[in-house]
Structures are given as C-alpha cells and as structure tokens.
Amino acid sequence: DDRVDASDVTVQVQKGEVTLSGTVNTRDQKRCAEDCAEAISGVREVINNLRVARDNGAGQSGQSASPGGS
Predict the structure, then answer these.
(1) What is the dihedral of CA 3, 51, 22, 16, to 10 degrees?
(2) pTM to 2 decimals?
(3) For residues 39 and 64, what is the distance between their CA atoms, to the nearest angstrom?
(4) What is the CA radius of gyration of the chain?
C-alpha cells in the first residue's frame, strides 16, 4: 500500500499471527499497516508494535531525549 512508508517496518508471521514492528511517520500509517496485514488471507491476528516517529525530540510515555546522551 503506497500510503505506508514501510522502510523501517519489520513483519514477522507465525501460525497466522502477524507482528509488525519498527517505525512509521504518522498514526495514519500505523493504522493503515495494521489494516493491510489484517486484510491478507490466512491472517488470524495482528500485533501492532509499530511506533510513530517523533521529530521534536520529546517522546511519549515518559521517554524523552536525554541531554546526558544515555
């Protein structure tokens, strides 16, 4: 699907379970990647571990850029 830049996306499949991991640019791309995987014949479950890239240096869930460079 050309709506998703999958350059940094890894797809693993095991027994009909698809795991998506890596980074996409937008939340829309994250949702679209999951929708694309679910649409494939034989897929029973999709685990979406994709993260949305942050360009502003401040992450979510307590993750932020560390000035100490950890």
Answers:
(1) -80
(2) 0.74
(3) 35
(4) 14
